[in-house]
Fold:
Amino acid sequence: MKVPLLTIKETPSPIEVKADSLFVELTMRVICCLLFGIPVDKNRSTSEGPPLEIEKVYQAMSVLSYRFLRVATGEKIWMKYLPTKSSREYWEARHYLEKFLTPRIDLALQMRDKPNKDWSEISPLFKQSMLVKIAAKEPKYDRASLIAESIELSIGGTDSTAHSLSFALAELSLNQNIFQKARTIVDRSWETYGGITLESLKDLSYIRAIFKETLRIYSVGSGSSSLQAERDTTIADQPIPRGTKIFWSTIAAGRDPSIYPNPEEFIPERWLGDDGKNNQLLMIDFGSGSHRCLGEHLAILEATVMLTMLIRYFDWELVNGRSSLKNLQQNLFIYPVDRMPAKFTVREFAKQTVNVK
Ligand code: HEM
Structure:
């Protein structure tokens, strides 16, 4: 995975980039910053633990993600103890991630257990991290449970948003009328606010709608979660006895014409009311019930900011055109096999000023 993140502004325009790999790096840096206090800027180092080696961490996460999918769809948990190639890969990946995570987790636990010690050497970013906050709040957490939580959150927070962003990028390229409408909104927002601010985010409902429409059509987490009936019930006239495991497809649900008319069409407007603000259309792509996605709001915020920045500063076209959207695979999340190569051109006005950091 070759990722030219943070070098676009120095690179002659146009530049061809595997957009999906770029988004993976971006989302991983964001989630690792929030969770572990690792600076997003790769040129800044931290003393609390090993650096984030994107390719190695991503490789290990991919192995674990694929196992999550297999377990969710029926593989027995004990199968990881069989002497098979996939078990060996699982344990290697797991040990690598544990080695990466343990120094920061141990430090967070020490900070919880010795609050009066002098921690002034520790970076403010780490002190503010979710890891330190979770460890401090929940005395029941120990190293093993924090490793498990950290792995789940980093896996949940990377590919899901990254692949969804790739699909949004593709749809924008293939639907120039939607792209132009989005650009008008983004440019107007820049004129009013001078960039992305808390205030301007309120005016970017259309960009959020583009992302929600992307999630509806390319529901990247489809098939990766299941439900269990807690009582006897009935779904679509079908009796479901208590204890039944139910697998459901959010991709199929998102194409239900009774809820989403013209389901095959990419129509961001369906997510907006007459006032241009969000409406209450059912969105099932983050799951449902008590296990509904923990990172839903983070994902939507991240995607809104990333898409807005891209629309503001770049034009782009897909190298493989629509076929990037046809050739898909699923690890835990659905992704484009070709990693969505796209040619980006910096907008004329921005050539001197663009800063994608
Ligand atoms: C577009 C982005 C995302 C999509 C489509 C997505 C989708 C999902 C889905 C379908 C579930 C299963 C819900 C269920 O079983 O009912 C889930 C759970 C979860 N997601 Fe996300 N997710 C996204 C982003 C994120 C992010 C950014 C995070 C990071 C904080 C995250 C963390 C989690 C966690 C921790 C769970 C497990 C919740 C639980 O079991 O209680 N997700 N997500």
Notes: Residues 22-156 form one domain. The chain has two domains: 22-156, 159-350. The radius of gyration is 22 Å.
